Amino acid sequence: MAEVVIVPSAAEGGSIPAAAIAALVTAKPDAVLGLATGSTPLTTWQALAGRGLDLSRVRGFALDEYVGLPAGHPESYRSVITREVVEPLGLTPALVRVPGDDGLPLEGAGDRYESDIHAAGGIDLQILGIGRTGHIGFNEPGSSLASLTRVKTLTEQTRIDNARFFDSVDDVPVHCITQGLGTILRARHLVLLAFGAGKAAAIAAALEGPVSASTPGSVVQLHPRVTVVVDEDAAADLAHADYYRYAWANRLDWER
Ligand SMILES: N[C@@H]1[C@@H](O)[C@H](O)[C@@H](COP(=O)(O)O)O[C@@H]1O
């Protein structure tokens, strides 16, 4: 059972993952974080920056990256992570990896990324957003529940959703390289975030629907340690919302 926290707003939602990351890094200064891009984690990065923690030894592995954008493209996830996470939080650029960034051929990049995560000791805490298609990372519907990092083809829906970051949908790459659902399941703690009404259906399907490759986010139901942070709008379709609120209000002292 995942721990589901329903918060009034995205702004307040950021404090929960920030506190989890702060506790982790205080105990383990060279912790390994799984980093997500997208608008959803922005309040987490802001809340974390506000804590003034030394994150210079933290190692990071991004979830995913587009394939085919020129190096330094402002919408490459490498650029986004540098701008939104590495620089404001004071991470060390050389300690933050993005899939396919090792300068070697794309073929085999997924296996090499898996080896690099393994060599780092595995991901301690993975931040996740969810797409409207139910994807996590760029694992679109149909992704194997056991998949590892590999090259994928984006759905038209995801390309349309992400066209806002480009001049037109034609400029959105067709391919990506993403950690797999199996990769995500290997992280020790998953923190799934979703804010806004546009995420309500995807969140309900992921948390309360059947575990299925058709709903990639549903893979979180197979993980022993998941924290889900949603605002009221994203929680709107959850059948057990009252129970989640009750469980959170009654959490034990040592869980706080
Ligand atoms: N590859 C990313 C995902 O990792 C992200 O979770 C999703 C949601 O984005 P947002 O948080 O902006 O809604 O979009 C992208 O497609």
Indicate the topology.
Layout: E1 3-7, H1 10-13, H2 15-27, E2 32-35, H3 42-49, E3 59-62, E4 64-66, H4 77-89, E5 96-97, H5 109-119, E6 125-128, E7 150-153, H6 156-162, E8 175-178, H7 181-186, E9 189-194, H8 200-208, E10 226-231, H9 241-249
Parallel strand pairs: 1-10, 2-3, 2-6, 3-5, 6-9, 9-10
Antiparallel strand pairs: 4-8, 7-8
Helix pairs in contact: 2-3, 3-4
The structure holds 2-amino-2-deoxy-6-O-phosphono-alpha-D-glucopyranose.
Distance between the termini: 17 Å
> Could you state the order of secondary-structure elements as H and E?
EHHEHEEHEHEEHEHEHEH
Q: Give average pLDDT, whole number.
A: 96
In DSSP terms (H or I, runs of 4 or more residues), the helix count works out at: 9
Shape: globular
How many DSSP E strands? 10
Low-confidence stretches: none
**Level-2 CATH architecture:** 3-Layer(aba) Sandwich
User: Which radius of gyration do the C-alpha atoms yield?
Assistant: 17 Å
Strand order of the largest sheet: 1-10-9-6-2-3-5
Category by helix and strand content? alpha/beta
Q: Considering DSSP H and I runs of 4 or more, what fraction of the residues is helical?
A: 25-40%
CATH topology: Rossmann fold
Number of domains: 1
Task: List the ligand species.
Answer: 2-amino-2-deoxy-6-O-phosphono-alpha-D-glucopyranose
**Beta-strand percentage?**
15-25%
Q: Biggest sheet, in brief? A: 7 strands, parallel
Question: What is the name of the CATH class?
Answer: Alpha Beta
